[in-house]
Amino acid sequence: MFEFTYRSEGHYDGEFHSHTFYELYYFHEGKCNYLIGDQIYNLSPGDLILMYGMTLHRPKVDPSAPYIRTIIHFDPAMLRPYSDVPNGIPILQPYERFRNYRLSLRGGDKEEFENLLLTMRKHQERGTPVGDGRLMLAFVDALHFIYEKCLEPLNEKREFPSDKERAVQDVIALLEHRYTDEELNMERLQKELHLSKSYLAKIFKEVTGVTIFDYVYRKRVNEAKVLFLLHPDISVTEVSFRLGFKHLAHFSRLFKQQAGETPEKYKKRLADRRSSDGKENRL
């Protein structure tokens, strides 16, 4: 699959999500914090984010300013022919090595990359097989540009614009390790982070746009989807307890709210898809 959305406008109010394809996100304009796993990126125009996909992510957009971004979703398998050639450049290596990574493009680099995106858009607008082919070649060129920039030393120290965002980073880092703990609560967070419950709740919602436990539950449901995908024989009950839910009914209710179907139906749909794929492969 390949999806190219050039200079998309309008505000995004979506939830934390993940997917099995890679993503390239370029920030043109606006005010936005981007949350990827346990990292918070305070974006500036020219910031380019590589996303591995499966890590839970979500933009937190300030609606007071225009929000303009370019997004590319792609299946890495479709790009292997461009790198698996004699003396080919491993253009997917930045995704494979860093998983999720930000490049801050400025000056001439910013102008060059935006010109690459504009070239892609012009080919896309042609709507012809030749245009589609040249669109893909332009995208491969953009990935070569990214690869070259990722060869530079990665010793730049990340700075947070405020103590508030640094504190939220600490909360997310802790949650990344404790989100399956069934005894996780605000009192425990308060004790470990040495900040009051009310302050933690307030700043987390301000920076991320969701509550602490909305974040935890979405991360648990996302992990449940991964477990169902990777372990077809695992039971719903085992997944529920493994992810820190004390009651199966609570897990099932949250899963349906976020996935649009019960965990049992989700498992069945995965099984049906595997069966269908198996039949196609035997034809």
UniProtKB/TrEMBL annotation:
Q: Which domain of life is it from?
A: Bacteria
The answer to whether the entry has keyword Amino-acid biosynthesis is no
| Domain HTH araC/xylS-type: start-end pairs | 169-269
Pfam families according to UniProt:
AraC_binding (PF02311), HTH_18 (PF12833)
UniProtKB keywords = DNA-binding, Transcription, Transcription regulation
Q: Where is the composition biased (Basic and acidic residues)?
A: 272-283
What organism is listed for this UniProt entry?
A: Cohnella soli
Q: Report whether Cell membrane shows up as a keyword of the record.
A: no
Locate the region Disordered.
262-283
Its recorded name reads AraC family transcriptional regulator
